[in-house]
Amino acid sequence: MTVKDNFSSQADYYARYRPHYPQELYEFLYSQVSSFNTAWDCATGNGQVAVELANRFKLVHASDISQQQLEKAPKRNNIHYFMAPSEKTQLSAGSADLITVAQALHWFDPGKFYREVQRVIHSKGILAYWGYQLLTINTQIDLCVRNFHDVVLGEYWDDERKILLEGYNRINFPLVDKKAARFYYKIEWTLSEMEGYLNSWSAVQKYIKLNNESPLPVLVSKLADMWPGKKTVTFPIFLTLGKVH
């Protein structure tokens, strides 16, 4: 499986506009962890999860295949950022109390990744992975965004996108005491901020690369009259965690 880097080219948009995750998600995560010595945030991107984990863990390893993404990540004394694919790292065996993957598992080779998890995880460690599905605002705007996602960008999405939209249902790691939970992240955005977020989509960047123009101006123009001021944007989040077998 070829390692794909779909986000280096839009690292600025990713760092500025990608949604974060609610504190309730982290509190649920921490309630399942028995030790807070070392965590590994795999495919850390702009480091948003790593920074949160650094508030609780003595050491956080945060890996990504994109140097551009890592350069945008906030620096902390107890965060070790490094470039590496998810399937093969130089992390010490049996060292991680918690391994997290946020909005990235669909890009991995699941079999190879899980073997690396088994190598790196502590005997009582937890693997947690989550993602968010298509945002919602209101019925009228949602129809426009859905059409943009499914029709305008349909052929520009990588096949892995389907794995994410299915809530990772086709990925079945043999976790012990597996738990699933749902959360919602809400944020107030102007239309300009929404446009910034959409620019971080890999399919938008692929469209621009192949057509030498952005598909966004047409959508933004259509939404302009529907979006005075700020709107509440909701991201539905699904999470799965468990002990590694």
From TrEMBL:
Gene Ontology MF terms: S-adenosylmethionine-dependent methyltransferase activity
Alphabetical UniProt keywords: Methyltransferase, Transferase
GO BP annotation list: methylation
InterPro entries found in the cross-reference section: Diverse_substrate_MTase, Methyltransf_11, SAM-dependent_MTases_sf
Limits of the Methyltransferase type domain: 41-128
Record flagged with keyword Methyltransferase: yes
Presence of keyword Methyltransferase: yes
Highest taxon of source: Bacteria
Family statement: Belongs to the methyltransferase superfamily.
PANTHER family, A to Z: METHYLTRANSF_11 DOMAIN-CONTAINING PROTEIN (PTHR44942), METHYLTRANSFERASE TYPE 11 DOMAIN-CONTAINING PROTEIN (PTHR44942:SF4)
Name of the protein this chain belongs to: Methyltransferase type 11 domain-containing protein
Organism field: Fulvivirga imtechensis AK7
Organism classification: Bacteria, Pseudomonadati, Bacteroidota, Cytophagia, Cytophagales
